[in-house]
């Protein structure tokens, strides 16, 4: 019963939010909405979650709250019938999602302008570099190519890429990130820019990694090893299965006994929109499997069946997961 109730509240909150944004409430509708908010603290919390997701996705500031209620701007009652169908709600939600994605695109313009090679969300690409080396770009990745007579430098502006390095003893091959650099020692390796660190995974030969701080240690990784580094430190080195770690090259995501929250964070790298867990109780459920990153909607269907969870989809862009 609880699951059905939660799902119903979430759908109601989404519909009320879409109607508010579409200015589709008459005076009577506004009073009904106020009554719905006042009826339950859970109503207010879920409505706040839904509206917060839209503000977050659209890169807009959230309005201040008082007593867990979002202050709504005064609106003139529309001069039309108080009829708002589910189709209109979904259409409005889809419009807001499209606007949010447009905002995210504009926000990313500086990176696009700086990059020599770029992939959007859900895309991948393999390119040949000027020296014959190759770079395989994962989803939402940007590279700047900075070759000189002295060195071959790739700046990873964001995302993840795998490099197969052509031999050239006179010019070292380096991948630079926000935290430092990873220098090839005749090798194939992947570099991923994360929010607070860089992850390096070696498939063949060796790679030297070093943070940008003066006192940062230099560490050498061997084949089938991975590590994270910051500007001043390197994490412990782990042994990995290279096939699993680079499954993204085949359009796959391989996970073994990982929390659902971590899996959703990874899926969001590929999904053209936002997948959000609105029920904290399901965040730690364990997930194992091989998933298709080219079809995130199907992955969500599989997770619903396997974990006995549900989704509310406000267009194909915004997916809310809950009990």
Tell me what the structure shows.
This protein is an alpha+beta fold. It folds into three domains: 2-107, no CATH class; 125-241, Jelly Rolls (Sandwich); 251-322, Phage tail protein beta-alpha-beta fold. Helices cover 32% and strands 29% of the residues. The chain is built from eight helices and 19 strands. A seven-stranded mixed β-sheet has the order 1-4-5-7-8-11-12. A hairpin with a 3-residue loop joins β7 (173-176) and β8 (180-184). α1 crosses α3 (41-57) and α2 (27-39) crosses α3. The longest helix is centred in the first third of the chain and has 22 residues, at 86-107. The protein is elongated. The model is unreliable at 57-92 (pLDDT under 50). Keywords: Membrane, Transmembrane, Transmembrane helix. GO terms for molecular function: sigma factor antagonist activity. This is FecR family protein.
Could you name the key traits of this structure?
3 domains; seven-stranded mixed β-sheet; Phage tail protein beta-alpha-beta fold; seven-stranded antiparallel β-sheet; Jelly Rolls; alpha+beta; 8 helices; about 325 residues
Radius of gyration: 24 Å
Q: Supply the helix-strand structural class.
A: alpha+beta
- N-to-C series of helices and strands: HHHHHEEEEEEEEEEEEEEHEHEEHEE
> How is the CATH topology of the largest domain named?
Jelly Rolls
Organism: Pseudochrobactrum asaccharolyticum
Protein name: FecR family protein
Domain FecR protein: 116-207
Transmembrane segments: 89-107
